[in-house]
Amino acid sequence: MKKIIKTKHAASPIGPYNQAVMVNGFLYTSGQIAINPNTGETEFDSIEHETNRIMKSLEAILSKAKLDFSHVIKASIFISDMDNFTKINEIYGSYFDDETAPARETVQVARLPKDANVEISLIAFQG
Ligand SMILES: CC(=[NH2+])C(=O)[O-]
After folding, report:
1. Domains of the chain, each with CATH number or no CATH
2. Which residues belong to the signal peptide in this entry (predicted)?
3. What is the ipTM of this complex?
4. Cβ of 16 less than 6 Å from ligand 1
């Protein structure tokens, strides 16, 4: 059965989608960009801050589903400039234990919603 996950501690969707959907113990998050959930404003001050803002939103979504980063099995990272790869890795990596970090792909794309520099989505498993 499909359950919609919503939290006010992560950015509201900016289109026709939900923050996350849970199905059969799997949580699928939408791609998160750096929007402050309290103000609705984008936070693109630095790539480090942007990545951290995203991870905080993802943490809030996981938490709403009674999960945490240890449950994440797959991540997708979309970036506007591969030159930011190292800086994004540093922030992203601080949320995971190296030994149990999820599978992942990182791709550079031509453009992201709101002209963000990074967007991250996750798949987590409850089991
Ligand atoms: C930001 C996002 N997830 C979207 O689909 O526009």
Report:
1. 2-125 (3.30.1330.40)
2. none
3. 0.94
4. no
